[in-house]
Design a protein that fits this description.
- By secondary structure, the chain is an alpha+beta fold.
- It has one domain.
- It has 5 helices and 8 strands, in the order ββαβββββααααβ.
- The strands form 2 sheets. Strands 1-2-6-7 form a 4-stranded mixed beta sheet, with helices on one face.
Length: 188
């Protein structure tokens, strides 16, 4: 996978990060400029922390921080996926945990520079499943449209202009890339 094109034939991407969850499958795709060997090491081997928080509108903010970097975030709604990929997340039993595939892609070449799979803690896995499951509730689907979604996200960023501020918001749960829960779950 490393060294291959993220999407065959596509040689450039716009910088950004995208979290997706389709059923139990979680991905974090990172599209970075000027990737250094240090960046590759951070994504491939460095310590990484994650966070999950959802707004009062039930939009999911997925937070991540690689060793030596500041917190970053990406927003997710199952409604942004094509209809055939909108699959409800599983119910998480006591010992179950989700895995996350992280892919680092060079925006200049379109090639995968690093890949890594990590396991979330059970509390974060459960919170993530509960948050995404709310995207399948009738009242969320009924009120969802892209422009409304963009407006709601902009309001959250007015309140929390930095991702680190979201990590301190009521209801945010954090964990490292393996097991350790840093904040207790708040399942509102």
């Amino acid at each position: 996978m490393v060294g291959k094109y993220f999407q065959e034939g596509r040689t450039s991407w716009v910088p950004g990060s995208f979290f997706t969850m389709i059923g139990p499958e979680c991905r974090l795709d990172l599209f970075w400029d000027n990737i250094s060997s240090e960046d590759v090491w951070r994504v491939s081997n460095g310590k990484v922390s994650f966070g999950v928080w959802y707004s009062e509108d039930r939009d999911l903010f997925f937070l991540y921080r690689f060793e030596g970097c500041h917190w970053s975030d990406t927003v997710f709604s199952a409604m942004t996926l094509p209809e055939e990929k909108r699959i409800r997340p599983p119910f998480m039993h006591v010992t179950e945990k989700l895995q996350l595939l992280i892919t680092l892609v060079s925006t200049e070449t379109g090639k995968i520079m690093a890949c890594r799979t990590l396991t979330f803690s059970h509390p974060l896995s459960k919170k993530l499943c509960l948050a995404v499951d709310k995207h399948f509730y009738a009242n969320y689907i009924k009120t969802w449209n892209e422009s409304n979604f963009v407006e709601r996200v902009a309001r959250v960023y007015q309140t929390y202009p930095l991702p680190e501020m979201i990590t301190k918001a009521q209801g945010c749960i954090l964990c490292t890339g393996q097991e350790n829960v840093l904040h207790p779950p708040y399942l509102a």
